[in-house]
Amino acid sequence: MFYQITYLLFKLKCIQPSDHAIYFWMQNNHIEKLEYALKFGNYKTRKLAAEALEIVGKPSSIPALINAMNDNVQNVSVAVLNALEKIGEDDELVKTIVKKRFNWAKQIRDNKAKYEANKNKKYKIYRWERASKKSFDIVKEQLKKPMR
Fold it and tell me: What is the CB neighbour count within 10 angstroms for residue 9?
């Protein structure tokens, strides 16, 4: 009863469900409540809901997980991808999507690590003198001289 009131207050946007509420919904296979938490919760709630959907493992939750795959918070995206990987073991389309998305996340992580490694590195930049700039400076100096 308490968790039904929690869900009602969550739908009214008064509170966020606790870890215990999500665990209770997971134990009792309340897939619709977990999917709602995945869609409308804060980042902690979304992550917990994705992990709970992974444990429950119902193929009916694949569309909700695919919609949540492009989450702004990387931890939520990774949790959703892990859930999709476990639930969609037999589906080739889900396997392909998860593989490409994991590769994309790995590439972003590698680029970020490469940027952090090279952040304090100093480069020697050689500047070649251009003839047009040199001639422009000569003309500029001649224009400064008074005319006779």
Answer: 13
